[in-house]
Design a protein that fits this description.
single chain
């Protein structure tokens, strides 16, 4: 999965689509707050029902905050995937390293030293790659699920703010 470049490409595309959704959510939340404070907050139906004005503002602030936090998590996810691509490149470079060692063995009289240096390099690359992959496994999927939950919360709170605004209008229209 991790070594599959096509899978990584699909993962990045999915993350780009989520980033676009986050940017739209943040724009809508910030725009809703600006609209509320500039116009809607002065409307009689919001002032008549003291509960709905603060509830709408709170919902949109929560929406904007969760979207901004999810946006930051997505940046960390992009960096994690970039590191995994770097690990894949280093592992691919070991194939060329085998050819370098073979050609050096032909010209270097100290073949034991060449083999020992090659073993050390391969072992250090293997340990580094394992550590990177373990870090990736431990953090990536947790951050990804957290980001998806935050996107859902942000979208829900955005819609919930508009619903509260509509309820406030309906209640004030039919209230004496």
């Amino acid at each position: 999965m991790i070594g599959d470049r096509e899978h990584l490409q699909h993962q990045l595309e999915a993350m780009k689509m989520s980033q676009a959704t986050l940017q739209q959510l943040m724009t809508l939340s910030a725009g809703g707050l600006a609209l509320f404070f500039s116009f809607i907050g002065k409307a009689p139906f919001v002032l008549a029902i003291q509960f709905f004005g603060p509830a709408v503002v709170t919902a949109w602030i929560i929406s904007l905050s969760t979207a901004a936090y999810a946006h930051r998590l997505h940046a960390e996810l992009f960096l994690s995937l970039a590191r995994i691509v770097g690990v894949n490149r280093e592992i691919d470079a070991l194939g060329d390293f085998a050819n370098e060692v073979a050609s050096e063995l032909k010209i270097n009289p100290n073949s034991a030293g060449v083999v020992e240096r090659a073993k050390v390099k391969i072992e250090s690359t293997r340990n580094w790659a394992r550590a990177e992959l373990n870090d990736f496994d431990k953090s990536f999927f947790i951050k990804q699920s957290r980001a998806l939950r935050l996107i859902r919360v942000s979208l829900f709170m955005l819609v919930f703010g508009f619903v509260q605004l509509g309820i406030g209008y309906v209640v004030s229209s039919f209230a004496p």
